[in-house]
Amino acid sequence: MKKFSKIVAGMLLAGMTMLSACTSAEQKNQDIYNYVYGVLYFTQPVEKATEMYVNKGFKPPIYFDDLNSIILALRAKKIDVIEDLPQPVADYICSRNQDMLARVPIDKRWSGNITCKMGVATGNDNVFEILNNAIKELNANGKLEVLQKKYVDAYLQKGKEPKPVTMPKFANAQTIKVAVTGDMPPIDLVTADGTPAGFNVALLSEIAKLKKVNIVLVPINSGTRFICLNKKVADAIFYTDTIVCDAKKAGFWALPASIQTTDIYAQYPIRYIGRK
C-alpha cells in the first residue's frame, strides 16, 4: 500500500510539474503579445507597419530614427524589445551594454535573415551599374568574405573598435555620394569622433579602387535615408531587407518604386535585443 501511495504521489508530482511547465510556456507565449516593440525606421508608412503588428495580435510598436534613441528607450523601459537587427549588430551592442541580451525572434513566424544591399534611385542607372557590378565582382573574387572577417567578426567583442578606412582619390574621376548612418555597428558605424568606419565603409573603399571612382561619405539620420536619396543629397544608401516568410509574401517590406537595390553583399540571422 505504501508503495502504491508513493507511485500515486510521484504521478501527481509529475503531473503538477508538467502542468507548471505548460502554464509557464503558455504564459511566455502570452507575454510576447504584451511586449512593447521598438523598431528602427521602416521603409513603409507608420500606419502600414502598425497595422501589421496589430493584425498579428501585438501592441502597436514605437518607431525610432536612430540607434542611440532606441537603446535609451530600452534601458528606460519605454520598450521591451528592439526588433529586427542583424546578428553581428545585436552581438556588438550587447557586448558593450551588459544590461542587454541578444535573442532569437520571440515569434517564430518572424524568424529569418536580414540581407544587406545598396539602394539607388530608379533611373540613376550609371551609379547603380557601378555599385552592383562591383559588388558582384567582390563577391566572386572572395573579397567580401575577407572584409566580413576583418571588419565585422574581428570587432564583435568589447575593447576592439574598427579603425577609419582610407578612401582612395582619383583625379578627374566620377564622384558618387553615399549616405552612412552609423546605426548598424560594426557594419555601418561612425566612430566617437564622427568618422564613418566599419564594414560598409571598407566595402565602399574597395568599390572605389575597383571602379576608379571617388566616393564621398554623407552622414545622415537613418530616418531620412529615402528622403536624402529622392532629393539627391546622396546617390546611394545602405539598405537592409528583412526576409520573413509571411510578411514577405504580403510584400510588406517591398521598397518604394522610386528605389532599386543591388545584389546582396552580406546576410545575417535576425536577432532581437531585450533587457537581461
What characteristics describe this protein?
8-stranded mixed β-sheet, 276 residues, 9 helices, 2 domains, alpha/beta, 39% helix, D-Maltodextrin-Binding Protein, domain 2, disordered N terminus, two-stranded parallel ribbon, 23% strand
Explain this structure to me?
By secondary structure, the protein is an alpha/beta fold. It folds into two domains: about 10-110, D-Maltodextrin-Binding Protein, domain 2 (3-Layer(aba) Sandwich), CATH 3.40.190; about 115-270, 3-Layer(aba) Sandwich (D-Maltodextrin-Binding Protein, domain 2), CATH 3.40.190. It has nine helices and twelve strands. The chain has helices at about 1-30, 45-55, 65-75, 85-95, 125-140, 145-150, 200-210, 225-230, 245-250; strands at about 35-40, 60-65, 80-85, 100-105, 115-120, 175-180, 190, 195, 215-220, 235-245, 260, 265-275. Strands 1, 2, 3, 4, 5, 10, 11 and 12 form an eight-stranded mixed β-sheet that branches. The protein is globular and about 60 Å long. Mean pLDDT is about 85; it is low at about 1-30.
Could you give the topology of this structure?
Layout: H1 2-31, E1 37-40, H2 46-55, E2 62-64, H3 67-75, E3 81-86, H4 87-96, E4 100-103, E5 113-121, H5 125-140, H6 143-151, E6 175-180, E7 189-190, E8 196-197, H7 199-211, E9 214-219, H8 225-230, E10 236-243, H9 245-249, E11 259-261, E12 266-275
CATH superfamily heading of the largest domain: Periplasmic binding protein-like II
CATH class of the largest domain: Alpha Beta
Provide the residue-averaged pLDDT. Answer: 83
Outline: globular
Give me the strand/helix succession. HEHEHEHEEHHEEEHEHEHEE
The rounded distance between the terminal residues' Cα atoms is 49 Å
Compute the number of helices: 9
Radius of gyration: 23 Å
| Protein structure class | alpha/beta
